[in-house]
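Worked problem 6 (solution included).
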Amino acid sequence: MSQKRMSPSLKSLIDNIRSVINESDWKTFDAALDSLSKTIKQKDLERICLEQSIFQEAFEFGSTSRWNRGKWAAEKILEHTLPLHIEISDKLLRKSEVDQVKCILINNGIYKNVSSIDYVAENGSGNSQVIAAQWCSIKTLRSLKGHKSSKLRKVYFNRLGPVECLDEMLSDRIADIRYEGIARAPYDYKKLISLTREIARSPFSLLIKKIPLDYLPMLLANRNVKDRWISNLFEQRMSSGR
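Solution. The predicted structure is:
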């Protein structure tokens, strides 16, 4: 980040943040943080939180150990200082390039307009979008149907539930989601018939227990049946006659 683009007060704030990170231990960190918060200008805090390159300049230091400490410090510093500058919170949720900043804002309820959660859920990316999806309106949640992110689809299915989404869960390309779909499906559910070619072991083991009995022989062609444990499950179901 070119220092020519930084105001003197912003450069000073970055230096102070680095000083807190580098020179404080767990005993002195809170006192250093309190002192730091009293010197922060809102416009400088806003810029650090808006621009990824400036955020990294302030909190990340190259090596893995420094990066991890910087990430931890960023969370602690921003959790403490952002509520003192609540006026910029909604702007940050809508415009920040920094995913960690938006995660902190949502996780700690640091905003003035709750609709900003809907905005991040619908227009965001990364972990902040997943967190927002957990708390957004049902209308916004439904707009995420079929999203490419498996994390978001899991939130979508967990919130709307199998009564509304069972067939979608059973057809999902992620095995964990298909497993949850089969686990929540009624016994002898007709849609299970379409899963006879299921290749993932966990969903297939449940399928054996819940597919209509008349269609159980169709599973014999599946490669999972070669597994001894799976084969035993299959034999137990066949011998039970139901």
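Discussion: The chain has three domains: 3-98, 114-157, 161-240.
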